[in-house]
Amino acid sequence: MEGGDEAAIERMVDSKDLQQQSKALDKLTDHVEDRQLDSTRVQEAMASIAASAEADRNAMRMREKELAAVKINAADVDIIANELELDRKVAERTLREHKGDAVAAIRSLLR
């Protein structure tokens, strides 16, 4: 019976080796799947960021168009720039942001 016992022991050892190898393979494939899943998440996040950035740029373009359409008085720009010692571009933009209202623009600049 010793030959039968040895064969049974050998089968158990082979079975344990196969189980260990199977577990190792599962861990390896799980790791690869996780990496692929992470890669997909990164790509989705990058696409979302790109779409958000494009939306922000479009919103800024629209805002610049709106501001450019505001009628302002050149004398108001000169007064604000000179009295508050500002660059003309800053004075003009602030005046446009306040729809040409010089008093509101000055108050905003003084805060």
TrEMBL record:
Annotated ranges, domain Nascent polypeptide-associated complex subunit alpha-like UBA: 70-110
Protein name: Huntingtin-interacting protein K
InterPro entries: Huntingtin-int_K, HYPK_UBA, NAC-like_UBA
Compositional bias segments (type: Basic and acidic residues): 8-17
Segments for region (Disordered): 1-32
UniProt source species: Rhodamnia argentea
Record-annotated membrane-spanning stretches: none
Pfam families for this protein: UBA_HYPK
GO BP annotations, alphabetical order: protein stabilization
